[in-house]
Protein 1
Amino acid sequence: MARRNAGRHVPLLMACALMAWQIWMLFHIASSETTHIVWSCDESDCGTDDLAGGAPMMGAAAVVAFSLMARRFLHHAAPGVALALAGTAFAGGWRAAVGAGDIREDESVDWMIGWFSAGHWITVAQAVAAAGAVWALVGGAVSLRRTGGLHRLRLGRRLAVSEASLTGWSPVGRGRGRVEVAFEDADGVRRTFPAVVGRHALGRRALVLHDAERPGDHTRSRLSTPRKKVR
């Protein structure tokens, strides 16, 4: 059954990998080929048939698509990963253009929003990549806390997952409150333990991740409030 469930995610995983490659390719082309674009202009507008001319817009669409598609695997970290990938590729493209002699690092070029040097664009791209990395780390930490990812790894084969109910909300500040978590172990014995959760948890399906060999040890139990069913 586990293999069958994992198999259902393969197409989506492949699509995410393809979209990540699209982000890298499009943003790298957008910067590395910018000096080779041939523009045709009239009195009111300019256009080009070169891929590099439309790469930034297509890259932005790919970032949005990846952020949505990869939520199944990366959860809240998905947008940050997409931004970090885009920023790294964009900076790499400018470095490639400088390395090829297409443009000097201190030479200004008219790109999208104005005249800036390649060095300035590299700095901006690195800042975007760094911001994306921070977003990914924070989002990943939030997702791991909500889904109990680290606790799952810690318990390994002893992991047991039970449906849980939350009662007795008591606010403790900043949108968080103390609740009583109740669940039944594999033997049908009712177990309870206290937990502090965000208000969002009250409207979600709740699971308890506990040690199958020691279900009564509350120090080895964690509450999980995933957006989707996670087993």
Protein 2
Amino acid sequence: MATRVIPRLISLLAVALLAACQQGTPAQNDVPAAKPKLSYEAGVLALLQERYGASAQLQGQWAQQLNDPDLDHARPVHRDICADQAIQVQSGSYRMLAVCTAYDDASPIELGSTDFIVLRRAADDGVSVAAELLGQGSGTGGKPGSVTALQMGANAWGFQVDDELVVVGALMRNRAWYLFDGDKTLSSAGWLRSHLDDHNAIDCNASGNCSHGRLDLNFDAVPDDSQPQLAYWPLRVQEKGRGCAGAVNKSHSIDYDTAQLRYSIPSTMQIEACN
């Protein structure tokens, strides 16, 4: 009798143990599927869409409605990638992107804005943000200035912004730089007047004698790569035209201040009028 009971008990225990193991093992259909790895370009686009919405794209404009705290309604804007440059800095792979925002219903004197973003590209083509400067104003009529990416040193690249401003009697063009050196730093590196004239200004004295403005001045500024091994290239500036003291034609060299993270541009290159 006992010899029959023991094998039966063993069989029942084995069945119970098998059932418990099966309950603890998830069905194959319940295991979440691994997300497919994105290509590098798809990863860049995904990062932009996470930040700017599903309509963001790498080429061409996209329209959005932005909430403006100063208005009681959403504000229409158009955005686009206005600069896109792959670079190597300090043995790292990066991608410089500028996202320009133009405001559709802007006043004539309103600035546009630009987000400057530097992405880091990992060895496995993963994408992350290395540095950024957001909401930098430039331009007029709600449209930002034109943006280009250019090398500014052996270990430095920059965004260059050119814009134009027309005021009463005067025309001004400005050039600004935002510099990245691979050290998680994207700095506003200075600006100057690339052009200034007051051809349409009229200056009248107490006697009622009037004269037009006398300024017609250009500051042509470019990074000086004559010593390519320098970490930060100086700016080579050619000043030419008619200034406050008369005709001028001379060259300047402006060094990058590593402590201040900017070019030490003299105030004489940022004038609005003669005193």
